[in-house]
Protein: YkuS family protein
Organism: Alicyclobacillus acidoterrestris
Amino acid sequence: MKSVAVEQGLTPVKQYLEERGCQVVDMTADQPQSQPGVCAIVITGADKNVMGIQTVVNNVPVISADGLTPEDVYHRVQEFIH
């Protein structure tokens, strides 16, 4: 099963994803993209670009949770879980 890496400080998002059956792993500060099986990375958005465009790290989409509800984040994550 593919998992979602979630940055620290996003406990409500992490809990919501887990409640919906997502496998959630804590994002490691050094290299989150090195975690095998991660299909998306969810960040707080504190350092996102002005347009809010998702970036890709080593072919893993990065989703900014800034301004999104846990449900919104879940729906975005679902686009990347296959």
